[in-house]
Amino acid sequence: MKKIVAFGAGLVAKPGIRYLLDKGFEVTVASRTVSKAEAIVDNHPNSKALAFDITKDDLDSIVKEHDLAISLLPYAFHPQIAKSCIKYKKHMATTSYVSDAMHALDDDAKKAGILIMNECGVDPGTDHMSAMRVIHEVQKKGGKITSFKSTTGGLPAPNSNDNPMGYKFSWSPKGVILAGTNAAQYLEDEKVVEIKSGDLFNHYWPYTVEGMELEAYPNRNSLQYVELYGLEGIKTMFRGTFRYPGWCESLQALFDLGLMDQKTKKGLNGITWKVLLQKMLDYKGDEIRGEVARKLGKDPNAECLNRLEWLGLFSDEQIPSAASYLDALADLFMTKLGKFAPEQQDMIVMLHEFTAEYPDGKQEKITSTLLDYGIPNGDSSMARTVSLPVAIAVRMMLEDKIKGTGVIIPTAPEVYNPILDELETMDIVFKEKILD
User: Same structural domain for residues 221 and 353?
Assistant: First the structure.
């Protein structure tokens, strides 16, 4: 029986781990909070829950006893696990973007004869797979993609969207906020558009997807996918994120107020949000909403200010123990926006938009859409769409159905087709349309 160790037992881990257990693999779930690992494995006969802190405990002793390691920890820990896998010639898989530190291990992984699968979740992950399936189909017919836009969002389903921010957490609140501090680049009509950190949420557009009103904003560096997807010469290349209307304006306001600062700050514990804003704005008056409106250049009655007030930023609520403004903000988001109640549903919405041109001059507009909902009183859509693709990939790797070595992402047909096909049996389905 092949042995797998999964590092991390967070919000998205359960469906993929249960899949691997049910497929007959022996799975150890190693987590700093062992009770979370125990809840996931639920006494399955092929399972083991292990208390493990990667910052303190012996990683090598665990990796060498298994055939493959899955890292569901924050991305900064992936290279550490990868180095141990290289040392003991064990395969590895993650759902995270390939960082520079991970990419630097490509040659070592090849020399060790191991495969390190990255970006095999939902975004990144099935976004690559579903996009490449359309791209390769167009190329097989002699065509070329001249425009590609891909946008994804993890959101409350409309029937569970019950707060002014239009968001709930199916993953780390700090991670959500940190993503908003990224810079971004994309290609539009052969021109590179560059957005600096701090200006991201000033760039957003309204979208209607399956009857839902959403907004989209750029997601990191889209330019790197021109080469990865084999789309050299493409005119438009954009990857974005979906949110409900109002999110971008509100997050930009929080950034402009300085509340996304990650630097360690003293004197946060015990003061109120209102007092903190008074100190940050050097304002001694009591009309803090009006002063924030002036700082942001907004009407005091603007909906954006209503959302900030709903969050509690103008209140006498005390700030819990926090090292930085961003940490305090993440705690506030979790408190106010909260997690999904058991009966509520989250939603993954992904939309690819292609323009294809053919040698005879014909042009096609193609869309590929995923709309997936969480299971009431069961697994969230985020958990399913993140952890099941990587679990399927892990099964294929251990069954020698994915070959090769080095650091890769799932853009080859022999990888993405079986994963997408199996996901369809789980009702995770991309619907493709050719538009008039």
Answer: yes
Catalytic annotation, pick one of 123, 127, 327, 346: 123
pLDDT at 171: 66
Q: What sign for the dihedral angle of Cα 79, 80, 81, 84?
A: positive
Domain that holds residue 42: 3-118
End-to-end CA distance of the chain: 52
- Per-residue pLDDT, 170: 64
* 286 annotated active-site: no
pLDDT at 80: 98
Q: Are 396 and 414 in contact (CB under 8 A)?
A: no
Per-residue tokens: 345: 């549903």
Same domain, 185 and 284: no
- With b for 16 or more beta-carbon neighbours within 10 A and e for fewer, the 136-155 pattern comes to bebeeeebbbebbbbbbbbb
Q: The CATH number of the domain where 51 resides is what? A: 3.40.50.720
How many CA within 13 A on the CB side of residue 125? 25
Residue 413: CB atoms within 10 A of its CB come to 11
Global pTM value: 0.92
Provide the pLDDT for residue 244: 98
CATH number at residue 141: 3.30.360.10
The C-alpha atoms of residue 186 and residue 192 are separated, in whole angstroms, by 6
| Tally of CB atoms within 10 A around 279 | 12
Q: 145, 363 in Cβ contact below 8 A?
A: no
Q: Do residues 296 and 230 share a domain?
A: no
Q: What residues in the chain have per-residue pLDDT under 50?
A: none
Domain count, the chain: 3
* DSSP character string of 383-419: HHHHHHHHHHHHHHHHTT-S---EEE-S-SHHHHHHH
Rounded distance between C-alpha atoms, residue 251 and residue 235, angstroms: 30
